[in-house]
Amino acid sequence: MDDHKADYWARQIRIGATIAAVVTSIGAVRIMGWPGASRWWAVPVVLAVVAQAFLLRLPWNRLVRNAAFRRQLLIWWFAELPILLLFGFADPDGAYLYMPAAVLLLMSAAALWAPRVVVLFGVLSGLGYMVLLPVHAHVGAGLTFVVSAMFGCVTALIAINSQSRRRLDARREATEQRAETLLEASADTVLAIGRDGTLKYVSPSIRRLLGFAAADFQGQVIAKVMSVDRLAELHDFMNRMVDLPIGQSLRLESRLRNAAGDWVYVDIMGTNWLNKPEVQAIVVSLRDVGARRELEQQLSRQAFTDSLTGLPNRVKFREKLAEAVEGGGDRQVTVLLLDLDDFKLVNDNLGHSAGDELLTTIADRLRAQVRPADMLARLGGDEFVFLLRDLDPADASGLAERLLTVAREPIRLGSRDVTCSLSIGIASTIGDEINAEQLLGNADLAMYAAKRAGRNAYAVFDPTMTLSVLEEAQQRADIEHALEHDEFRVLYQPVVDMNTQELTAVEALVRWQHPRDGLLGPYHFIAGAEANGLIVPLGRWVLREACAQLARWRAETPAAAGLHVNVNLSARQFQYAGLVDDVAAALADAGLDAASLTLEITESMLMADIETAKDTLHALRRLGVRLAIDDFGTGYSSLSYLKQLPVDVIKIDKTFVDEVHIDEDDVALVDAVAGLGAALKMKTVAEGIETDEQWATLRRIGIDHGQGYLFGRPSEPEGILGMLSVTTVS
């Protein structure tokens, strides 16, 4: 039995008890007019009145919920009939009082019981009346029949009304049950909250939402039974709900604690129906939005977090940077922009999985340097950025030093230890009214200044850097244009036998025929091409052009049959993963045998990463090309590795040749190199020979070949062809 039905039963029982008490009181008044010997009946009748009045105070709402107790209540009603009949015989006018009293009892019974009970009660009441009228009131049979028939009609009408009531009750209960089922099946939990905060209704679906039974909350004050995340916010929400016009709604998102003690995120929608008579409550629906919040957080993480490192991404960083710069007032904001040097080489040589592992390792090292109030983000690729607040410029430089140190620690990738470096740009808002984009741009300029300074370094932004970057950008555009429009030329410098002066090889040297500035030497563009990455396509073009030119010379004169061509490799070109393929393609396209080509590598290039250098040199040697160490003696510690490298030629740097004819120390050093070359079965070439004295001294020491202005300046292919013709004639 639900609360509504229990209230109804309790109300009807109290009405019936009141009617019974009133009728019994009338009977007590009537007894006082009886003969003296019979007046003692007034005592039990008065006691019955008192008992019936006492029945009004019983907790009928609770008692009637028991089905067995409800069945026993019928005894109360049927027990009234013999008492009423006895009173009808005892009282002189009892026949006239019986009928209205019986109708009252019949009507009160019809309010609770089924029609068949009402009919039975009416039949028994009517039989008593049919006995009472002729015996006590001396009414004739005809009148008794008429009155009994009328009483039967009243009974039938009351029974019909009882049936109609029960049908209406059944329909109401079905509607309520349907609504209850829908509410229970609904994802939402519905509450009806009275003006005083009492829960008048709680839908069963609250068990799914919070793990409590609806009965645990029914009739309780909401603030006492529901643990809300922000209680003050709930009170404010309820106060605003009370002040709303009828039918208006408010929405709130909060947290409720469930039966297990965990927080459940809920969307709260409240509608004010306090002034609607049928409801008189604030109707609140609670919807679990935990899954939605988790999805939103996941989407937020995906939108604002770098998937590889777990750091904030470019979008999140720009948002935080704008907040810091535009809303920070006088607070200083500093940005450190970090770029991994030559990260592309790791991807090209070791694969992208190794590159990802390198990035995550570097990210972990950088994360350890972040203060709680600061931010580290990955902008994409191999770029990271720090956002720092209230940091002294000296502290920023100290942080940059630490970052350079931790980045240089070796990283194990597969079976190899890899060392990487950073280029760091630092920019600050000190004394400047700049926006977030300008601040990040300044850090970017400083970072490229660090790269131009040799990498593995940091630079603090200076306004003059803007001009340098513009010049570099213009140079890059010019070099790209020159590559597309064949503005580069290759000149060739002779390499001769020191004893016979016979031309044995030529070194390919690139020049730029600039449309405005004329013929430019390598010092005007090689460093820029190296910095901006264009040195790789430029070096590839020089390699192919030199091989093709040697093939043309051999086709034009037999004197070029034994001629070799030397091509210099830049640092980036040497580190480029496709170098071996480029060399093989250049030889194949020119139709040259690999032994005709000598590739020159500087000592410093070898020492940068000796293990990788060894792998690359051995791969080139497998092609069959010859290898030379250029500028030998200007590097460091290469002698310990020299015997491990597949090198054919040692080229002695010009600095040791300039004074070899007058400086005994230079003589000793060159002599040592010549001896080393002979011991390792390597050819020796002295560079920068300009005088006969230098030539004579070097020839006496035992140097195999020479190169320099004494034998010929870099010249066009026709000049080399002329030298070959002279050699042939000789």
Automatic annotation (TrEMBL):
Residues 472-728 form the EAL domain. Residues 175-245 form the PAS domain. Residues 331-463 form the GGDEF domain. InterPro entries: Biofilm_reg_signaling, EAL_dom, EAL_sf, GGDEF_dom, Nucleotide_cyclase, PAS, PAS-like_dom_sf, PAS_4. The chain crosses the membrane at residues 12-34, 40-60, 72-90, 118-137, 143-162. Keywords: Membrane, Transmembrane, Transmembrane helix. PANTHER family: BIOFILM ARCHITECTURE MAINTENANCE PROTEIN MBAA, DIGUANYLATE CYCLASE DGCP. This is Two-component system response regulator. It comes from Paractinoplanes ferrugineus. The lineage of its organism: Bacteria, Bacillati, Actinomycetota, Actinomycetes, Micromonosporales.
